[in-house]
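User: Hello, can you help with two protein structures?

Assistant: Certainly.
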Amino acid sequence: MNIIEVQDLRKEFKSHSSRSGLSGAFRDLFTRNYKVLAAVDNISLTVKQGEMVGYIGENGAGKSTTIKMLTGILTPTSGSVVVNGMDPHKEREQFVRTIGVVFGQRSQLWWDIAVQESFRLLKKVYRVSDEDYKNHMGHVIETLEIGPLLDKPVRKLSLGQRMRCELAAALIHNPPLLFLDEPTIGLDVLVKLKIRKFLKEINKQYKTTILLTTHDLTDIEALCERVVLLDEGKIVYDGKLNQLQAKAVEGKQVEFQFLPETHENNLPRIPKVHWEQKDATTWLANVNGDEQMVSELISKVVQNNLIKNVRINEVSTEEIIRKIYEEGMAIS
């Protein structure tokens, strides 16, 4: 079952183009030049129930614009959007009861009242029964460890405490779909770990579908098997994270740590293997080949040298994305 179905989705914005010089500025007072920019450029996408999808890209790639169209905040210029079986823009009142949204920079909690009072107000807005609220929110509050924060005004919470409360607020009505836009921005490592653990739990227990946009790619690696990569409003990759790594990065890097210092002359000469010295006892072998070539390399090195440690270095997702954008790699 598809929770999200997007077909040829497009969002255009008009941008004012200023003329140069004093005469140009004077002319702009009477007539203005505009150019049309496509923030989201005819994308198609489906997300199944229970998936955790990372929606990633550089600043200005169109991530937040997409989320705003999927949640009904923005109306598309063209294309179709069906979320939870509804059009987010035409069935607004019914639709908002089926989604949860957390924007890292914005709050849905009331600033000057206690957290639990905000929860009670949201409970009425979403028409959640006392029994459902008690059963579901008891688990959420306990797992996110926000019980001691419920009596505090939101303005007195730290950023990490507030974000955990924001996440709880988005789940008061136990929505089947959760949109997270930069939910861990500015948070310390321990808070991030708590939020990631909680998201895994609700996904497993309630089959909650999660669409996550973030610049912290460790969040993507920890939570999402599938990633959608956006560039200039277009989807350039949609698939498994591990397949992206395999397609985007050629070869592997093997790190050898030798017991005594060693010289490059003592290392085997193998086609498509480039040696690079890291320090006196450590050498990096950049292998432009598959796992069999890596195995052969390790075997030859171990036969003729005393080895303290061997490690195959995994290329980080951040490095993969950087390489894709810098080199304009085509991913399919």
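That covers the first. Now for the second protein you mentioned:
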Amino acid sequence: MLAAWLLGLAPPAPAAAPVAGSAQAVHARQLADGLPDALRVLSASRVGAGHAIYMLWYAGDPHSRALFNWYWQHVADLDSIGVAVYWIALPTSDADTLDADCLDSIAAFARCNAPGYQADAGDALDRLVANFNAWSAFAAAHGLRGVWAAWPSPRGWTGSANVLASHDGGVDGAATFGLYLRKLGLRDLHPLLASLHTIAQPGVDGAQRLYVFWDPDCAYCRRDFLTIAANAAAIHAANPTLGIRWVPLGVLRPGSRAKAARALAGYAAMARDERGYDEADESGALSAAPGVDPALAREESENRLAWAALTGGGGTPSYLWTGHGAMRLTPGSPDDVMQFLAALR
């Protein structure tokens, strides 16, 4: 049943700027009851989505830019699960880093968030202050002071100042934001986690789970796998509550799916793939030939669908931490795998 439900989920958006979205900034009152008429918001999201979240964006703040750029690359993915994101631009002491025309449309706003953008006139302050005044009055009336995100709910407006509170140097803030938005749209990510077909890392078997999405032809996956295998006892000693679960799936090459399905036979099969890995060709050692056990092929397919829903197709390896009720996503291989694992709490 869960696999059938996942098959109805649209695939994640490609990492390219979408062309959809309103041509102009819109009055917030057109989107949600109670928002002040003077507040202007920007969005490329599909109108009429089931869930709306209003993000505060601070001029010149690199974290605000990172969060917006993640959104801009994943609009179609979020639309597919019924989540619309609306951006409220606010001033900081760095307001002169933005030109007023950046606030004319979502496309202009995206251009001004892109790496390398430099303001010409830096004349956005008046428009940012007008937004600040409108937002501040609304926030005070609804108890939303200090939030970075707000949304209407059946019980009235609510907000959050700490969804990214667990962010640290080893966790990608934008990806964690994306995971949070998926949780908002899908309501509960735990059925997706329960659908994963995993392989336990011997010797690292604590109760707090770290899921590692692994492709048999991924060079960085191999590096991390061998590091963890060689240091399992040290990892457990440094963090006894940690339990690592590998999630095989194939996305890199046409034959990766067959290899990942064969890897699902167990840890020994994964180890054969990695220890016989062809570094020159970046190819795992397991066979890519057809004729995979149908049950294992089905498990690989379910892993791939859950990976897309949970991460937005964020690549492999991706690390999803679910310990102590937290849910954090780190795409890509950490700079120092041992340090990253030791810090997970």
